Automatic annotation (TrEMBL):
Species this chain originates from: Algoriphagus iocasae
InterPro entries cross-referenced by the UniProt entry: AmpC-like, Beta-lactam-related, Beta-lactam/transpept-like, Beta-lactam_class-A_AS
UniProt KW keywords: Carboxypeptidase, Hydrolase, Protease, Signal
Domain Beta-lactamase-related positions: 49-335
Signal peptide positions on this chain: 1-19
SUPFAM superfamilies named among the record's database cross-references: beta-lactamase/transpeptidase-like
PROSITE patterns on file: BETA_LACTAMASE_A
The protein's Enzyme Commission number: 3.4.16.4
Protein name: D-alanyl-D-alanine carboxypeptidase
Gene Ontology MF, one: serine-type D-Ala-D-Ala carboxypeptidase activity
Gene3D superfamilies reported in the protein's UniProt record: DD-peptidase/beta-lactamase superfamily (3.40.710.10)
PANTHER family the UniProt entry points to: D-ALANYL-D-ALANINE CARBOXYPEPTIDASE, D-ALANYL-D-ALANINE-CARBOXYPEPTIDASE/ENDOPEPTIDASE AMPH
């Protein structure tokens, strides 16, 4: 019993020291900025878990940011959308090599068919961003509309129409990588069609998020507590809190979450607790090559990138979110910058946290 107590004490002290170190790194990364940063780190065996926050949830009121507060995760939602489509595949509802013409609504097919041959574009290609869709969010009119009227209520149909009217196809289906929210907005429609629910409800049903304890991962307007915990996020100095969530609500983005539940979801995914068949995760993570090198090593709702010295599977979101899994370390990390970060494809605080872990290991 005494030996067990010493082991527990050593484990407790190690975690306490790490927590202090991580808090220092977080405060250092914040610097003189007021917009907050939140971080969560979790080991795959659950022997270590840490969450921290620094700065303000609202610069105007100087409300301090807490680790459990939620934020718009933007494109990180694509990981959940991709996983949901793969669950529909497992259920036999669709095949990844089905042409999208087989599944999309007639009204939306009529719009998209003006620029694209939907019989030649497959679900697999859309998941991998290789379908050749122009990204409607790249149209100048998209952000012009948001900045002129932040409360504008968008529809999926409107975004498809903008993508066709304001841009041209990137190239032949399957021949190149070109990141496109438009494709994932199509996938969002499929989830709604085959679950008979809105996108929030459809994803939660297919992935069993609530059954797995993810209580603060919701689309805006779906859970009052999740909404109340939402922080202010900033873009080029503007407070975007009142921007309509419909700008990014149909599959390219949409979820609110916090860093704690982001690492929880990635852990569930990589530990085989989301899919019925272990091979489905292999399909999701299959490496893709193109004749012309892709700008991202993107799979399905996930991409590979180096953080420090380690290869990771990750996804990031427009407002300043990143979540990652490091297979070599069996470690899950998530960060959110309330005003984004600059100069790097990777959240700088995650690089610093990994360096801190390595330093503690050496000491």
């Amino acid at each position: 019993m005494k030996k067990l107590s010493f082991v527990f004490l050593g484990f407790f002290l190690l975690n306490f020291i790490n927590a202090q170190d991580f808090s220092s790194v977080l405060e250092s990364e914040l610097g003189d900025n007021k917009a907050g940063i939140s971080v969560s780190i979790q080991s795959g065996d659950d022997s270590f878990s840490w969450s921290g926050a620094a700065g303000f949830a609202d610069i105007k009121t100087e409300e301090k940011l807490k680790p459990n507060q939620t934020f718009r995760i933007a494109s990180v939602t694509k990981t959940y959308v991709a996983a949901s489509i793969l669950r529909l595949m497992e259920l036999g509802v669709l095949n990844l090599d089905d042409p999208i013409s087989k599944h999309i609504s007639a009204a939306h097919a009529a719009i998209l068919s003006k620029d694209y041959n939907l019989d030649e574009i497959t679900i697999r290609q859309i998941l991998r961003h290789s379908a050749g869709f122009f990204d409607h969010t790249h149209a100048a009119e998209f952000f012009d509309t948001i900045l002129k009227d932040p409360s504008h209520t968008w529809t999926r149909t409107e975004q498809f129409q903008m993508g066709v009217d304001k841009g041209d196809p990137i190239g032949p289906p399957g021949k190149q990588f070109s990141y496109s929210d438009t494709g994932y907005v199509i996938l969002g429609e499929l989830i709604e069609k085959y679950t008979g629910k809105n996108l929030d409800g459809g994803i939660k049903e297919l992935l069993k998020l609530e059954e797995k304890g993810l209580e603060r991962t919701d689309f805006e307007g779906e859970d009052p507590i999740t909404d109340q915990l939402r922080i202010h996020q900033y873009f080029q100095g503007m407070d975007t809190y009142q921007f309509s969530p419909t700008m990014d609500y149909f599959g390219g983005g949409g979820f609110l979450s916090n860093t704690e539940e982001l690492v929880d979801f990635f852990q569930l995914l990589f530990q085989g607790k989301i899919f019925d068949d272990p091979k489905t995760l292999d399909i999701m993570l299959e490496h893709v090559t193109y004749e012309n090198k892709a700008t991202m090593d993107y799979q399905m709702g996930m991409y590979r990138v180096k953080i420090g010295d380690y290869e990771t599977y990750c996804h990031s979101g427009f407002w300043g979110t990143m979540v990652a899994f490091i297979p070599e370390k069996d470690m899950y990390l998530a960060a959110n910058y309330s005003s984004g970060w600059k100069g790097s494809a990777v959240a700088p605080v995650l690089v610093k946290m990994i360096k801190e872990m390595e330093k503690d290991k050496m000491e």
